[in-house]
């Protein structure tokens, strides 16, 4: 009898909890940290990109109401220019790219492209206009050719191969046993972070979108790979509106403007030279990174002479 009564009591307790939960369904979603799904407005129209001029106006955002991530961010990415976002880990850099792609809606302020609020346009047209090179590209369990062609399904074999060349991954692919027909992904050949990122760049070269977001890999890449990726990125961002989410500073030197994010606010902004002259946060980050690169170089030299 005792054995039976305990579970029954417990079930009663759970039942009450669920009833209570159902009355507070919104609170329950808050507790579960379920992101509200972004939906198109009933009267959403297609985004019309004329030049690709992006404006973030006083953007505020939090994943969790208790913790504000962006506290009123304003900046412009003029048509055809490259703007970089840098800042300490967790500052909210990648969040900016997620908001532009509208994975989440801003909670205050607005993001516009050529004067159109991105909340008023269809997600399909918005995402078609933006080429996203994410930190970690997901590959399909298919050939490397299929994976690159994903950028533009009607591209010819020659176009796919040319895109691979421009993304600095052509030599690597040709060295594989089945070349462009090599199976990749979880069940095929596993590519390194740098290789996957170049596949993503090749996709973007095929897609040729007016706007581009490059969310640089956080993981350290060796210097040669980094240079190859840099060349590929330089090619793909030429003449296109480009937002670079930079986790390393070596990639942002040539950008038209660098925005330094700290604690959800813009701490500094300017070109590489202007920011170095300011001797502020950017200059400190630069000095620290240069030291790290130098230490790594010495370590490698020591290893090579062993
Ligand atoms: P890093 O350089 O380390 O990649 P970042 O500046 O790109 O950092 P974000 O990825 O924008 O940082 O994250 C900003 C903050 O938001 C972090 O503290 C992170 O923990 C938090 N965050 C990110 N994604 C979510 C999420 N889906 N839910 C809740 N919090 C999140």
Write the layout of secondary structure elements.
Elements: H1 2-23, H2 25-32, E1 54-61, E2 70-77, E3 82-86, H3 93-100, E4 108-113, E5 116-117, H4 123-129, E6 130-133, H5 144-149, H6 157-166, H7 170-174, H8 193-207, E7 211-215, H9 223-237, E8 241-245, E9 257-262, E10 265-270, H10 272-278, H11 281-305
Parallel strand pairs: 3-8, 3-9, 6-7, 7-8
Antiparallel strand pairs: 1-2, 1-4, 4-5, 9-10
Helix pairs in contact: 6-8, 8-9
Adenosine-5'-triphosphate binds at residues 63-64, 69, 87, 89-95, 218, 247.
Give an overview of the whole structure:
- The longest helix has 25 residues, at 281-305.
- The protein has eleven helices and ten strands.
- The protein has a six-stranded mixed sheet. Strands 2-1-4-5 form a four-stranded antiparallel sheet, with helices on one face.
- The chain is globular, with a radius of gyration of 23 Å.
- With 306 residues, it is of the alpha/beta class.
- Strand 4 and strand 5 form a beta hairpin.
- It binds adenosine-5'-triphosphate (ATP).
- Adenosine-5'-triphosphate is lined by residues 63-64, 69, 87, 89-95, 218, 247.
- Residues 54-288 form the ABC transporter domain.
């Amino acid at each position: 009898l005792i054995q039976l009564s305990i579970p029954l009591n417990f079930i009663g307790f759970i039942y009450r909890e669920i009833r209570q939960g159902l009355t507070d369904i919104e609170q329950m979603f808050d507790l579960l940290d379920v992101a509200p799904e972004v939906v198109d407005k009933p009267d959403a129209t297609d985004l019309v990109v004329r030049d690709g001029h992006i404006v973030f106006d006083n953007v505020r955002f939090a994943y969790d109401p208790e913790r504000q991530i962006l506290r009123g961010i304003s900046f412009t990415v003029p048509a055809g220019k490259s703007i970089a976002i840098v800042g300490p880990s967790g500052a909210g850099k990648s969040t900016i790219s997620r908001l532009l792609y509208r994975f989440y809606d801003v909670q205050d302020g607005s993001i516009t492209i050529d004067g159109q609020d991105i909340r008023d346009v269809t997600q399909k047209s918005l995402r078609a206009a933006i080429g996203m090179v994410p930190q970690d590209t997901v590959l399909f369990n298919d050939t490397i050719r299929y994976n690159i062609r994903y950028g533009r399904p009607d591209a010819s074999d020659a176009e796919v191969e040319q895109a691979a060349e421009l993304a600095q991954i052509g030599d690597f692919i040709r060295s594989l046993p089945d070349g462009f027909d090599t199976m990749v992904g979880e069940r095929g050949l596993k590519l390194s972070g740098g290789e996957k990122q170049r596949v993503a760049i090749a996709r973007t070269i095929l897609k040729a979108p007016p706007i581009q977001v490059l969310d640089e890999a956080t993981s350290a890449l060796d210097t040669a790979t980094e240079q190859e990726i840099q060349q590929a990125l330089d090619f793909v961002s030429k003449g296109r509106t480009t937002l670079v989410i930079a986790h390393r500073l070596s990639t942002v030197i040539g950008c038209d403007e660098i925005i330094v994010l700290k604690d959800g606010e813009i701490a500094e902004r300017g070109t590489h030279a202007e920011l170095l002259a300011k001797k502020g946060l950017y200059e400190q980050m630069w000095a620290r990174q240069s030291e790290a690169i130098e230490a790594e170089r010495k370590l490698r030299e020591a290893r090579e002479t062993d």
